[in-house]
Task: inverse folding
């Protein structure tokens, strides 16, 4: 009986003092485990006189229950304390760390917007490869032999002298007409390459959007109407459009297309260099020689075409002073747009 009392007070004191679950587990092994002191007492039952066996057994069981109960209570208390500490260390009201969302590159934004606008006019998107044939890039587009744009100083040729990196998106016109009968209405955004020395306004690769509309009785009035619609949608409802006579080998007549300045509305400012106008595109009526090169009958169909430089427009619209900012991919810079 004395031994039981000693075990009981020692066990209860140890349980009370246990500061963590490991200590508590060790105490369990020590007192309640298979070779622990309480089961040990049970083994003494054999040595107890028969008339005391019952009382002894009862006592040991009571001891076991008491230690077991104290142990469970302490284990639960420790568990609750740990949860409380975790909750206190984790402040759910603290603001999260903002990692920043991605944004579309200005070139992509502008391309998407232009494509969207022309799609509402019934244009579909056409595509061509960056590596082109000399035929698609120059011959079929009515560039005579010896035309300066063909020079190796201006154009990147591949080892195969019939292949080059396209210098404009106009070869997509050729590809599309070679593979589709008229009427057609396509818009073709893409990357272009020229042997330019990089500076604030030049880059050896850049982007254009090509447009081509071929059918019966397509006229310069369609060109002006469609580009005016584009101007108002892209730059604002008050934007005006003007055509200036120009020359391109693949269009006749050819024009350069200006939009009224979106900053000053045409009065003249720094952005439009006081002219009130911003040069946006080259355009014109498809030259009959181009139709012949792709197997269209120039007596049956007419068409207009245009091409615009996306970087130029992005720089004007977003006020970007150096074209190289568009390719350095500094997200701090690009995220502004
Ligand atoms: N390809 C011309 C260039 O890169 C732009 C251009 C002008 C495209 C007139 C056209 C066009 O389709 O009709 O300078």
Result:
């Amino acid at each position: 009986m004395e031994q039981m009392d000693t075990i009981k007070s020692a066990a209860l004191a140890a349980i009370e003092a246990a500061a963590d679950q490991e200590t508590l587990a060790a105490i369990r092994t020590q007192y309640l485990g298979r070779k622990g002191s309480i089961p040990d007492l049970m083994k003494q039952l054999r040595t107890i006189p028969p008339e005391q066996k019952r009382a002894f057994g009862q006592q040991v069981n009571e001891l076991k229950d008491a230690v077991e109960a104290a142990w469970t209570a302490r284990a639960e208390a420790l568990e609750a304390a740990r949860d409380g500490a975790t909750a206190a260390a984790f402040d759910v009201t603290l603001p999260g760390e903002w990692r920043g969302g991605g944004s579309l590159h200005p070139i992509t934004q502008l391309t998407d917007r232009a494509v969207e606008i022309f799609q509402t006019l019934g244009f579909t998107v056409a595509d061509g490869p960056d590596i082109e044939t000399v035929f698609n890039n120059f011959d079929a587009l009515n560039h005579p032999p010896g035309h300066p744009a063909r020079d190796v100083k201006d154009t990147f040729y591949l080892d195969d002298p019939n292949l080059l990196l396209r210098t404009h998106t106009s070869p997509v016109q050729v590809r599309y007409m070679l593979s589709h009968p008229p009427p057609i209405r396509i818009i073709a955004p893409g990357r272009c390459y020229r042997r330019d020395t990089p500076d604030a306004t030049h880059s050896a690769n850049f982007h254009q959007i090509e447009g081509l509309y071929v059918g019966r009785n397509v006229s310069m009035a369609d060109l002006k109407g469609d580009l005016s619609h584009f101007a108002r949608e892209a730059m604002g409802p008050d934007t005006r459009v003007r055509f200036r006579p120009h020359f391109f080998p693949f269009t006749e007549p050819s024009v350069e297309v200006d939009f009224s300045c979106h900053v000053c509305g045409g009065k003249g400012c720094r952005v439009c260099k006081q002219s009130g106008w911003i040069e946006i595109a080259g355009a014109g009526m498809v030259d009959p020689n181009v139709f012949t090169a792709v197997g269209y009958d120039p007596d049956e169909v007419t068409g207009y075409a245009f091409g615009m430089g996306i970087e130029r427009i992005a720089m004007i619209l977003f006020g970007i002073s150096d074209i190289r900012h568009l390719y350095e991919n500094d997200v701090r810079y690009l995220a502004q747009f």
Summary: The longest strand covers residues 205-215. The mean pLDDT is 93. Residues 168, 170, 210, 248, 251, 282-284, 305-307 surround 3,4-dihydroxyphenylalanine (CB under 6 Å). Residues 2-89 form one domain.
